[in-house]
Amino acid sequence: MLGPTLNHPGDGAEGLLYLNGRFLRPEEGCIGVEDRGFLFGDGVYEALKILNGRCLWLSEHLARLGESCREIDLEFPWAKHPLAEILPRLAEESGIEAGLVYLQVTRGVSPRDFDYTRGLEPTVMALIRPLTFPDEVTFRRGISLQPWGDLRWARCDIKSLNLLPAVLGKRAAREQGRDEVLWVAPDGTVREGGSSNAFAVIDGVLRTHPADNFILNGITRQSLLRLAGELDVPHEVRAFTMDELEGADEAFVASTTRDVMPVKSVGGRTISDGRPGPISLQLVNRLREEAASLAGLDPPQLFSRS
Ligand code: PMP
């Protein structure tokens, strides 16, 4: 049962907000100044794709949210905020066909103190906004990466609100004229993108960093590894180095907002011929088919070899 009532139905133009049990227009949302998310970044988040008004890979995202909450000792009040019902309703009532739900949970509001007491009332918000996902032209264009020493913390498996390194890294990448930052370990191991997982095809084998504490285990990453298995694409969960990436047959980043996005260059060096490779193409098409099927849409027009 959903307790909250919809005060202002969304008109589909700009978005809709769920905040602590109420459905509101985005601009009507108010958060306490002593919210621990605001003061300390003490919270976690998720970002989900909406297609045909439906939330895709919803249970996977909610499972990851549950894990992030557990890892920061935050007991998520599922009975009070049944997200498996709230998010589809948010998507439906927003009228948004294609978009993103940004879901954030903080430990709640209390006088500023690093230490916390258990049992605070978490702040739960979900905001849906329209978003355009990459089309064939964008896929074909690909993106450029700017490698940067990974200066984040050692629990990147938690989808924490503390995103200052990504904010600064993405900005630095942009200032170099690049599209995304690539986090690289001190020993030259490639970890992941600023908000994406990194993949490379090396000697014919698709590889990506293991899901340890140095990367976020992306929902898209997990789907792609499963699909690679189904498609008999040789693959291995094994990190690769910057040298291996520079000599790779193909490379791409993967995320909810970028799907499979070919990497045309890294630090100014072109990867292969700078164009999407066959495995990237195979995987993006299979992922888009799965997304369309989950969204209840007809099979999409597949991206073709140029
Ligand atoms: N790594 C990081 C650091 C991210 O921020 C994201 C996007 N949230 C991803 C990977 C990709 O995750 P997903 O496929 O779940 O969007």
3D structure, described in words:
- By secondary structure, this protein is of the alpha+beta class.
- The protein has 2 domains: 9-130, 2-Layer Sandwich (D-amino Acid Aminotransferase, Chain A, domain 1); 136-294, D-amino Acid Aminotransferase, Chain A, domain 2 (Alpha-Beta Barrel), CATH 3.20.10.10.
- 27% of the residues lie in helices and 26% in strands.
- It is built from 8 helices and 15 strands.
- The chain has helices spanning 36-40, 58-71, 83-94, 136-141, 164-175, 219-230, 242-246, 278-294, and strands at residues 16-19, 22-24, 43-51, 54-55, 99-106, 123-130, 143-149, 180-184, 190-193, 196-202, 205-208, 235-237, 250-255, 259-266, 269-270.
- A 6-stranded antiparallel β-sheet has the order 2-1-6-5-3-4.
- β13 (250-255) and β14 form a beta hairpin.
- Residues 1-12 have low confidence and may be disordered.
- The structure holds 4'-deoxy-4'-aminopyridoxal-5'-phosphate.
- The site of 4'-deoxy-4'-aminopyridoxal-5'-phosphate has 12 residues, from β10 and α6.
Strand % is 25-35%
CATH class of the largest domain: Alpha Beta
In spatial order, strands of the major sheet run 2-1-6-5-3-4
The CA-CA distance between the termini, in Å, is: 50 Å
What name does CATH use for the topology of the largest domain? D-amino Acid Aminotransferase, Chain A, domain 2
Number of helices: 8
Mean pLDDT: 95
What is the ordering of alpha helices and beta strands?
A: EEHEEHHEEHEHEEEEHEHEEEH
Taking the sheet with the most strands, its summary is: 6 strands, antiparallel
Bound small molecules, by name, code or SMILES, are: 4'-deoxy-4'-aminopyridoxal-5'-phosphate
Low-confidence stretches: 1-12
Number of domains: 2
Radius of gyration: 20 Å
Q: Per CATH, which architecture of the largest domain?
A: Alpha-Beta Barrel
Approximate shape: globular
What is the helix fraction of residues, given as a range? 25-40%
CATH homologous superfamily grouping of the largest domain: D-amino Acid Aminotransferase, subunit A, domain 2
Would you count the extended β strands for me?
15
The helix/strand class is: alpha+beta
